[in-house]
Amino acid sequence: MIELLESTSTNLYQATTLVELLKYRAATQSDRIGFIFLTDGEMDEVRLSYGALDQQARAIANQLQGRKGERALLLYPPSLEYICALFGCFYAGVVAVPAYPPRRNSNLLRLQSIIADAQASVILTTSALLENIQKFAANSIITTDHLIPNFYSTEEVNITPETLAFLQYTSGSTGNPKGVMLTHENLLHNSKIIHHCFEHTANSRCVIWLPPYHDMGLIGGILQPFYGGFPVILMSPVHFLQKPIRWLQTISRYQATTSGAPNFAYQLCLRKIKPEQLKTLDLSSWDVAFVGAEPIQAKTLENFAETFASCGFRSEAFYPCYGLAEATLFVSGGKKSKPVVVETIETPALAKNKVILSSKNSAHPQKIVSCGQVKFDYNLEIVQPESLTACSEGEIGEIWISGASVTQGYWKKTELTQQTFKAYLSTGEGPFLRTGDLGFIKNNELFVTGRLKEVIIIRGRNYYPQDIEQTVQKISSDFRLGCGAAFGVELEGEERLVIVQEVERTALKTLDINNTIEKIKRAISEHHQLQVYEVIFLKPGTIPKTTSGKIKRYACREQYLENRLDAINDSEFSSPNQANNSSEQTDQLIQWLRQYASENINSRLIDERRCIPPHIVLDFGNKGLLGMQVPNEYGGLGLNNVDTLKVLEQLGAIDTTLALFVGLNNILGIRPILKFGSNTLKSELLPQLATGRELAAFALTEPSAGSNPQAIQSSASNSLDGWLLNGTKIWSGSAAWAGAINVFVKHPETGGISAFVVRRGTPGLRQGPEALTMGMRGMVQNTVYLNDVLVEKDSLLGEAGQGLNVAQDAMMYGRLAIAAASIGGMKRCAQLMLRYSQRRVISTGHLINNPFILSRLNELTAGITAIETLVNRIAKLLDKGEFIPAEAYTVCKTAGAEFFWKAADNLVQILGGRGYIETNFAPHILRDARVLRIFEGPTETLNFFLGSRVVNNSQELEQLMSQTLGAPEVYQRLKEAAEQIREFTSVDCFSSLQVRQWVSIQVGELASFAILWAALKGLNSTSQEIKRSLNWTQLNFEQKLTQALSQTPNDAVVRSVNQTTDLIYSYIESIGEIEQSFSGEDTEVDQLLQKYDSRSIREVQVKVSPQDYKEICFKSLSNLNPSQSTERLQDELIEWLSRKLKIPVHQIDPTHAFADYGMDSVMAVELAQDLEEKLGLSQPLEATIAWNFPTIKSLAQYLSHLTTGTQQETVKTQEKQPQKVKSTLNNLDLLSEVEMAQLLAQELATTKGRLGQ
């Protein structure tokens, strides 16, 4: 532990330079420990006294003799060596340039730009980093970690208060960095202010994990303790991010008085530190918990104080402050040990730079935390940036400051320095530093509200939009040059990154939106370590610009928040002029269908014969029904979304089988070719498919891959002329009839799944047996065999390895089509029920007059209005180019299918015995309706997905309900209800994971009605039908909630998996096990339902509870073979990503990189730490491990090797090695280089022997 200093005086030695102050401390306090660095972030200490710092700094200065005024780049990991190098530069009169050392696979552009801008003549670093630095820097390089202080004498250099101490490169873009010039006077003056405001004494103690390369970590964390003569305990930022508890444990262990960080660090502690860990902490000594560098959230401070109160933490310890590099560091702060000042204002007004205090009943209140008052000789003004006049109290303007801590300007940037540091009010008062930040003064307290300048601050770091925009611009030639913008928006208390980009007019039809967004996210993650919140593509010429042609990023941000950007999306793949004739064509087509159905369609015969007659297929083709959205130039109708869905609704009313047949051809068959096919492929196939001369099919499902496409086993291998496809597909609709089949296979070359079009007659393509389905019997659902099927490069859909994007696009639109067909089916059911009930006379009169029948009919019509409203609104939004999130498609599918099934069931029931007769339509309708609850995702699975999106605060869902559908109050009601369900739900026999799943399922059911409610309410319609349906939907929502908040009979009898299994197994005693066998047809019972499971051991699913699953994954990996271990680790990595990024598991492709999903640097460190803990690794993983492997799968393979192969090989090796070698391996540090070489040669020989076995 550190001994307390005897002196409690606040009187400080009044040095004029940092050099003078170090000499004083070395002469009077030589043995006193000034710095402690925790090399492991916990217990392993390295200490540095003031005397040792003086000696080491002199040794480094000796190496820099004759370089006074030159710039030295400091490239060190967080360490005591870095501090010594910094003071070595001070002693030598060399201007230090601290910078982040390069990490593996990092972009070196910014570092190289800093070297060039600073004109650094020398680089100081450590031996460990030397080789890496030599690869990119031609400068003179000095390693300082092996200098011997006693051997050097330093020539005294004249240092004055005006001498430059270092350049702080925290501002400026990557290509044009700005180095802030700090003198010794700036640093001492700001240190004095901090010392006074924090009320530091010689007995203070500080704990700092912040990066030591810029203001808060360097000046606040290193120079402030040095100035005050009290110790600081330092650790690497990575160690904090890996385990946030380390920060608080260090404060507790050393009884620190001062520590702090940006807002996100306190949030991270709340998220990562477990309740049981609180008992080990004593935070009673912590009396200054400073927070700054990014927007401060009142909720974060409240939650942190409440959570850690039991550890002795006091909310009065919080010290919000404001500062910036251009003012050295500190500008304003509160009063120590006083409550934080918070104001509650109106959010909409704040967005327009106005301050309106919120009332108690405000709909949009926002708490804003004061950054205290300005101190000492600072002068602060709030200024209108256009008129340069001072603002009155409570008026928002730009923050201007002046004082001795304001720095000298930007290195070698005279004009920019003049603009930023030499500002004058209209009265002539000045000069001032223009901070670029916006704020207001109330009761002498400074409140920072935003930024005038366009820098993006995320987790305390500055990012410049032009850097991000340049990265985006390089991704595609389809982007309009210089027509993109990057900006930050605050969501859920955090700054998020949004990118907007104009697209060339020629690319509107061909741009692969999903794939391009993935590329953008990956590039931003790799080059900037940032997670992209949203990417929006804009129509040409619509991005806001100045009269001189510059992008107005602030206007882009404003339009984004108000949902006014002129965006395009993936629905815009057809020519705009096609919409003009769409409606007229549709009306004619629907009239033709009605007439044709009455004369040429016999649904019962289609159903009984299990075949659609050829004349219907031919006639539909001739009328364009099989190519509704195909552009005219390819022979299609070119219908828009609204009209396409109208046709599908009409078909659903005529015959659900025919609706599915037409929908499959248009959506699963043609859409992937139209959107993702090459021009050659489209020219060859679309004219055939659009006119029905050939049909198209979709082959995704396999025996072991149903709802999980990642389990696909079919594969593509390289061939001289393209690829060879091998595998088996099942239940492929229309495949036996199709001339073109969209096939999805694993693609080892890319590590992903690729999509190909396979033509009828291709050698190796073989049609297998047909599955005898319960409904939709007129369509063929058959197996497809792929045996060395050769496909050429033009047959590829989209990019290699990106096939799931193709499938996802088609299936999302397919869900909308199912809803449209269901609406038609529901209306047909209503017609038949009405027709029967009007004619059927019972003892009480006509059946229509029976309250029960009337209730059923009105319930049905209310449901029809609700789902029809949602489908129509979505279709219109798609035609406008709006983005529609997955949640909307999901509700269309689940609500449409469930309502239709209920209507079909009620139809059979109302018809009584007649409903059971095949000639009376009802049985056929019932059978067809049933599959829609399964097709394109079972209702239960989709409800689970929908509920998890609500529980995990999906921004897309909030935007859909609050902005797109215009019903924010419904969204809030849904969130409140979800929280009620979460708090209420508890089932004794469920594990915590099962409880979370159960909550998601119930919330998902509720969300379906909430989204329908929002669609109706957002119309603000006076229609009585809309109002009636609105009331019905709202009542259903509340009823579902009531059910969820009360114990149901099912809850009362629910048992565990094992209990349930045992009970059902016991039925064998009463009924035996019955399994019928047939002959003459392909009627083999699915293996998963057979009495004896004939699958291989590897395919058998072990019965295990979700709670035990994680233990098996991580604790039993050593018992698995590498392939099994890899699969389980891969699943865990995907689950981790899903939880952190709040995206569904099924949207995460293990053949993609982590960067594709926007992982940032903080999350990467969290991943490494979580893996270390769960796998029980003895050696730490690299913090950058997420970027060191090209795909999620490859990382899983590496981890599998660590947890299985390495352990097994170590045992084998030790068994083979003689005892002498084993002993030697335990004493490597005692070996000479020759002995080490000999041992390495022996080990390599052993390894080769193993590989040869």
From TrEMBL:
Record's keyword terms, sorted: FAD, Fatty acid metabolism, Flavoprotein, Ligase, Lipid metabolism, Phosphopantetheine, Phosphoprotein
Domain Carrier: 1124-1203
GO function term, MF aspect, one: phosphopantetheine binding
GO cellular component, one term: plasma membrane
Highest taxon listed in the record's lineage: Bacteria
InterPro entries referenced in this protein's UniProt entry, alphabetically: ACP-like_sf (IPR036736), Acyl-CoA_Oxase/DH_mid-dom (IPR006091), Acyl-CoA_Oxase/DH_mid-dom_sf (IPR046373), AcylCo_DH-like_C (IPR036250), AcylCo_DH/oxidase_C (IPR009075), AcylCoA_DH/ox_N (IPR013786), AcylCoA_DH/ox_N_sf (IPR037069), AcylCoA_DH/oxidase_NM_dom_sf (IPR009100)
Coiled coil: none
Transmembrane spans: none
SMART domains in UniProt: PKS_PP, PKS_PP_betabranch
Cofactors demanded by this protein: FAD
Gene3D superfamilies given in the database record: 3.30.300.30, ACP-like, Acyl-CoA dehydrogenase/oxidase, N-terminal domain, Butyryl-CoA Dehydrogenase, subunit A, domain 2, Butyryl-CoA Dehydrogenase, subunit A, domain 3, N-terminal domain of ligase-like
Pfam family of the protein (one): Acyl-CoA_dh_M
One GO process term, biological-process aspect: Actinobacterium-type cell wall biogenesis
Protein family according to the UniProt entry: Belongs to the acyl-CoA dehydrogenase family.
Record-given protein name: Carrier domain-containing protein
Organism from which the protein derives: Limnoraphis robusta CS-951
